[in-house]
Every structure is written in structure tokens, then in C-alpha cells.
Amino acid sequence: MLAVVGGGISGIAAALELLEKGISPDELMLVEAQDSMGGKIRSIEMAGKRVEAGPDAFLTRTTAPADLATRVGLGDELVRPRSFSAAIWARGKQYPSPEGIMLGVPVSVGQFVRTSAVLSPLGRLRALLDVVLPKTPLAGDATISHLVRSRFGREVDEVLVDPMVGGINAGSTTVLGLRAVAPQLLEAYKNSGARSLARSLVAVVPPRPQPGARTIPFASFATGLDTLVRASEEYLAARGVRILKGARAETISNGRGGLTLQLAGSGRKRGERIALAGVILAIPAPSAAALLSEAARSASAKLERIDYADVAMTVMRYPKSAFAEPLRGSGLLVPRRFGHLVTAVTFASRKWEHLDLPDSELLRVSAGRFGDRRFAHMDDTTLQREIAAELTELMDLRQGPAEATTWRWQGALPQYRPFHMELVASIRGDLAETGAVELCGAAYDGVGVPACIASGTEAAKRLASRLTG
Ligand SMILES: Cc1cc2nc3c(=O)[nH]c(=O)nc-3n(C[C@H](O)[C@H](O)[C@H](O)COP(=O)(O)OP(=O)(O)OC[C@H]3O[C@@H](n4cnc5c(N)ncnc54)[C@H](O)[C@@H]3O)c2cc1C
Questions:
Q1: Which CATH code fits 308-413?
Q2: Is the pTM of this model over 0.90?
Q3: Class of domain 97-202 (CATH, top level)
Q4: Atom of ligand 1 nearest to the CA of 10
């Protein structure tokens, strides 16, 4: 028997690929601790619409999500956002994102300085020093802040790069590593003879899209991103894969008889013990660490070093009359330096045509990031009240929300520190000695949905080739 532990998108992709590689469905099981599949992918109902409490879109630069959709029988259901430009809140009001940037980092310094009203005059002047300061030495890897601050100063990092790049990971650029999170910056700077980071980036900036070209490289499903999860689950079940929901994997032991998976349970209802020929762990690093604490101590200890940020996603419906001016763009980023609970707002009903409502707007409001768990000490009512009060200030609202729902993600997003990839390689190296145990998912090879699908697919390929080769 082969087991995939974790029914998030990584585990789903792994199970699908094992079938593709010829593993018999009778020999395959998928074990998920929750009562439903999908992990962080969670679409919830509001005002008759399916709104996302987890990811709300995936990048379409790779075909991994579309390929998976096709494999499970989904066709043309993909929809694209109609807007993808977030404003930035700073010093009492919203500013448009400056021009001439990549990942929040200036590429064209002249264009950037002319359009960066979001920065203070001193912050703009400091950014100009990038072109004259001596080259920043980088040994192997460093935090994103280390490079950005040395070139453009603290304000560019805190007001632009941290909300844009750190925001994707609910992290902080003072913690996140260049190589794993922003490899474009590191590679471009290392490979360039220029001391200026902006000049180094010019060579790698994607070409300007042709006018009229599809410029928004994101997609989702009008029926909710969990459409992909439901279709995959049906596909696996229809082929006879054993899907165990509400079943938490507790330990993996590696004795003389080979690998054994113990499911949770207590007393006389002791969980099932399953002998395995191989297993793919598609679960967050702390869960994997606990599961492997007996069978692979060294890997388990290393897995514990991967930190996570917690996030609360509050979906709110506001009457249109609450807005002094019609909403424009796809959202608002709120830099950490101003001390708000709210980290970002997606204008869901502006961003997605299928979420249009005649009299209301739907907002997705994020709170919480690495190092800021204030929301965790508030119950839902208090959190929603605090958020509504902040939105009144941030967005100049005239009324409170008509309804709100909060979804809490403990262990929402892993934090890739410098040398993360070396850590992951070392964990996988330890596991290679243990036998047929593979790791995949957001903790290792990228946090975005496409990266998770690729990670699950690759883990399945490795396991299948180990078992058959
Ligand atoms: C709020 C939020 C917004 C995001 N926005 C985006 C976005 O817009 N675009 C994007 O591309 N990505 C986004 N992401 C990231 C992306 O959604 C996740 O990284 C990805 O979905 C993780 O998938 P996964 O399968 O690796 O892990 P998970 O989804 O965490 O799945 C792991 C599964 O394993 C199960 N599990 C854990 N332990 C055990 C155990 N012992 N036994 C059995 N089962 C277990 C869990 O219950 C869970 O279902 C967002 C994430 C969050 C939290």
C-alpha cells in the first residue's frame, strides 16, 4: 500500500500523479485529518457567491494548475481577474503603486522617483543612492531586507517590498531569504557587474506586454477555487482510491517489517495501523516533524526549524453606499510600519466579475503576519469590530459591514529563511536513508498553488521511480 498523507492541493497532485505513473488505485490511499479535502483552499458562501477564505487566484505562468484541472475533467471554467493593481496605504491615505518596479524594487529609478508619492521626500532621495553606493557583498544568501535596504534604504523596503513580497508569505522581508523567495533579485544582482540593483534588474524585467494583450497572469474558478479540489476528489474516488477523511496520521515507524503508518485514535478505538511500501507527506512541516519523530529523528528536528505565520481572513459585505467613492483596482496593501491589524484588503467584487453584486461590495481582509498574532487574542466579534474600525480609517468608509465571516488559519504560511533550500535538501537527504518517504507541499518548494501542485507531482514521480526502478 502507498499512502499520501494530507489532502491539500499538494497531496491531491501527488495522488493524481501516482495514478498516472501506473500505481493501482487499490494500492493507494489518501489520508486527511479534516472532514473535508483542500487544506488551505477553502471557498465560503456569502450573499450567494463563493468567496475565498484561502488563496483567491493562482499564477498562470506555469501550466500546472490548468493541467491538473484538465486531468480531472474541468474544461473552460477558468476565469481571470479584471483588475490587478493594489494601492498602498501610507501616512494617512492611499497611494497608487509606483511605476518602474519589480517585486516592489525600483528598476527604473527615474520613473520610480517621479511616481513614488507613497514615499516621503527623504525616502525617495535615499532610493537614488542605489546608483552610487558600492556593490553590496552577498555571500550565498541573505534576507530580502539586507539587499533592498542596503541599496534603496529602509523606507522602500518597509513601504513597498515588505507589503508586496512579504505580504504573499504573510512574512517579513527581514526574515525571508532572497534565494527561496525572490531569486530573481539575487540572481540578477550577482550576475551583473553593476553596483546598482536597479540597473542589474533591467536585464531581467519581463518585456512590456503588447497593448490589448492579456496582462493579468492569474486565474481562478467562478464556482470557487475549491472546484478544483472537489473535481479531483471525485476523480480519485471514482477510480477506487481509498480516501480517508477525518483521519489524522499520528506516527510513522520504520521497523524490520518496513514502514508502518499509525492513524490517530485512543483507547479501544485505537487507530488503524497500515503497512506501507511508501508514503508521501503532503502536510505542513510541524505535522511532518511530529509524524517522523520516531522514524527519522534528524529530519524531524530540521523540519521543526521551519516557522509559520498565522493569518485570519475576514470576508465582509459592505453596502455600496458605505464608500465615499467607487472602489477602484483590486485591493489595498497596508505596510507593517504603520501598526495596523489589517495587512491587506482584496476588493473581491471589483477584482472578479463573477462576484459582482448590485448593491454591495465584497472585501477579503487579511490580519496577522509573521511576528504579529494580535488577532489570535480576539474572538471573531471583536476582531471584526476592530477591522471595521480600521477600514473606516484606511478606506474612508461611512458605514459598517452588513455581514462578516472570519476564517482562521493557524500555520497559514511557512517562512522561507535564508538557506531554506539547503535545509530542505538536507531534510530530503536524511529521509532518503529512511526508505520510501517523500515530502512535498508549501513548506518546501514554494508556497503558491502552482508550486504546491508541482511539488506534489515531483514527489510522486520520485516515489514511483524508486518503487519501480
Ligand atoms: C490566507 C491564504 C491566502 C493564500 N493566497 C494564495 C493565493 O492567492 N495564491 C496562491 O497561489 N497561494 C496562496 N496561498 C498559499 C496556498 O494556498 C498554500 O500554500 C497551499 O494551498 C498549500 O497546499 P498544501 O497542500 O501544501 O498544504 P495544505 O493546504 O496546508 O494541506 C495540508 C493538509 O494536510 C492535512 N494534515 C496535516 N497534518 C495531517 C496529519 N497528521 N494527518 C492527516 N492530514 C494532515 C491538513 O488538514 C491539510 O488539509 C494562500 C494561503 C493562505 C493561508
A1: 3.90.660.20
A2: yes
A3: mainly alpha
A4: 25
